[in-house]
Amino acid sequence: MFENGKILILGFARSGYEAAKVLVKRGNQVLINDLKQPPDTEHGKIEELEQLGVKFLFGEHPEDLLDSSYQYLVKNPGVPIDHPYVKKAKSLEIPVINETEMAYRLLPKNQNIQLIAITGTNGKTTTTTLIYKFLVEDSRRVHLVGNIGYPFCSFLDKLEENDIIVDEVSCQQLENLTEFCPNIAVLTNVSEAHLEFMKTYQHYKEVKAKLFQNQTQEDVAILNMGDEESLRVTKSIKSSVKYFSSHGEINGAHLTDKSIYYYDEKIVDLKDVRLIGTHNYENIMAAIMAVKELGVSNEAIRRVLMDFSGVEHRLEFVREVQGRKFYNDTEATNIKCCQIALSSFHAPIILFLGGYERGQDFEELSDYMGEVKAIFAIGSCRNRVLEFGRKMNIPTYSYEFLKEAFLEAWHISSEEDILLLSPASASWDQYKQCEDRGDEFKNYVMELE
Question: How far apart are CA 77 and CA 111, in angstroms?
Fold first, then answer.
């Protein structure tokens, strides 16, 4: 499989780099094509691959580049699903896959590798990280891969008997998975997101359900019993289904009497958990359900939960200064994530809201603004945020850039306030990636005295 063929990789990035290394070592002719010119920081990787025999074409997508001589089109997850090469590949009956699918097909079949895969609209990175940390704390050999930042392909040569792989899978990756089949599949929740990529909400839901498409009764699916959309999109799966719920006792993991249970066994009291918010308790329960399938001890789970304060940029506690607490939730690039953040606090909130303009409906935040004492509208959609804030009768201040907004927010804040960056907007109007926005926010916090 994937030997001595001719393969086009569409999109360089980290996954393209790792896929190319694997493919060229298996005797394939590999061409990497990317419309963008590579930054200077990538020149070392390009030279490495060129020495291995990989060819490159940057800055253009020639119409005649892809033809029937190619066995596969390996698409970077960020490439649009309706890209001309994707359409042409389908017309030529060339399989369109991605690095995750390729790595799965190349997994050794005789080493009893256990694959846990996690997806969902919100919470998948926190859930993935918790699963990984639980397993590490329980002294298991485990590899963290996927959308969390580590290409699956880069771990193929490191696998040993009985290893465990924990794989965060995005909708962009699920789009081109065909044979991929995790032993344990987790769906945190489903709500409307990524429509600029998926085109329709219906397609987005269908893609999320693909995580379970190849599972059998021998495989496990872990679902959120309180999320109706998750239950709808998975109603036809063949997996052995298990549940978690934050709405009272169920036959599974549940949140009852301010404690988290696994069936009838108390795992931890919420007062001993560093993460805050019902959404995070659901992430914890999903992770517990996954690792309990592999026999992880309660002690290992408790040790992690007492220490783990969250994933960077996701409702991340930064620091307390003069009685004010600062939280960086820059990854809240959609309305749903901001709703979750606002629901997590029971103290006055100063909210930094806005960013890239893509028509997000801030009115959907109306029912969650009860604790918000002031809004700082930022970014290209700040005028609409300003209009929304005034309609809510909340003092709202408009600044193009975060720096000016931060200084004024600090000036008007009081003890016990929560200063929350949860913009409900992407960052592409001013930043290459939303993490840069979060880093800037944290730098301003650390400069305070």
Answer: 28
Check residue 39 and give its pLDDT: 86
Q: How far apart are CA 322 and CA 320, in angstroms?
A: 7
Residues 6+ apart with CB under 8 A from 16: 9, 32, 34, 74, 76, 99
**pTM of the full structure:** 0.86
CB of 162 closer than 8 Å to CB of 111: yes
Question: Directed axis angle between helix 402-412 and helix 434-446, to 10°?
Answer: 40
What is the model's pLDDT at position 68?
A: 97
Question: How far, in Å, are 139, 335, 384, 385 from residue 392 at the CA level?
Answer: 51, 16, 12, 11
Q: Exposed/middle/buried for 403, CB within 10 Å: 0-12, 13-18, 19+?
A: middle
Q: Three-state DSSP class for 420?
A: strand
Q: In this structure, are strands 259-262 and 265-269 parallel, antiparallel, or unpaired? A: antiparallel
Report CA-CA distances (Å) from 163 to 6, 10, 43, 124, 344.
31, 30, 34, 21, 36
User: Residue 326: which of 302, 308, 352, 306 has the closest Cα?
Assistant: 352
Residue 341 has pLDDT above 90, yes or no: yes
**pLDDT, position 311:** 87
DSSP states of 22-87: HHHHTT-EEEEEESSPPPGGGHHHHHHHHHHT-EEEES---TTSS-TT-SEEEE-TTS-TT-HHHH
User: pLDDT for 351-406, tens place per residue?
Assistant: 999 999 988 999 999 999 999 999 999 999 999 999 999 999 999 999 999 999 99
Q: How far is the C-alpha of 255 from the C-alpha of 249, rounded, in Å? A: 7
* Nearest Cα to Cα of residue 115 among 220, 244, 42: 220
**Residue 181 CA to its chain's centroid (Å):** 19
Q: Is the pLDDT of residue 270 over 90?
A: yes
Average pLDDT over residues 327-340: 93
Structure tokens at 359: 């028509």
SS3 of residue 320 by DSSP: strand
Residues 301, 273: Cα–Cα separation, whole Å: 11
DSSP 205-230: HHHHHGGGTT--TTSEEEEETT-HHH
Task: Kindly compute the dihedral angle of the four CA atoms of residues 341, 342, 347, 350, in this order, to the nearest 10 degrees.
Answer: 100
Mean of the pLDDT values across residues 278-289? 96
Residue with tokens 């891969």: 145
Buried b (16+ CB within 10 A) or exposed e, 192-204: ebbeebbeeeebb
